[in-house]
Amino acid sequence: QVQLVESGGGLVQAGGSLRLSCAASGRSFTNYAMGWFRQAPGKEREFVAHITWSGGATNYADSVKGRFTTSRDTAKDTVYLQMDSLKPEDTAIYYCAARRMYTNDYIYWGQGTQVTVSS
After folding, report:
1. Would strands 10-13 and 92-100 be described as parallel, antiparallel, or unpaired?
2. Integer Cα distance of 13 and 36 in angstroms
3. 30 or 118, higher pLDDT
4. How far is CA 21 from the centre of its chain?
5. How far is Cα 34 from Cα 79, in angstroms, rounded to an integer?
6. How would residue 35 be classed by pLDDT, with cut points 50, 70 and 90?
7. DSSP notation for 17-49
8. Calpha distance 92→99 (Å, rounded)
9. Residue 79 β-bridge partners
């Protein structure tokens, strides 16, 4: 059974930092890309970043580029999202997800972790 479990969310002041973790289990993710998404109240879910499990190639939404960094530790089967210079508009539930390489659909999702940035 595939599981993605996020942790590390919380309340932080604007300008602060948080690091989210996503522990993956239940299968090999060698041929997968791991994505981070977020959903703010009343808004649609949006893409934040992704990283390929094997090569570590990354991509970011313009809104977080230069502030957020995603990485992975293949030995720990864990993906991270380092969030710096946080803004109130980063407040959302953050989800990690997995998709097979060269496909568009994320097929595995975590339960999400709340990030709240106060002004």
Report:
1. unpaired
2. 21
3. 118
4. 8
5. 8
6. very high
7. -EEEEEEEESS--TTEEEEEEEE-TTS--EEEE
8. 22
9. 22, 72
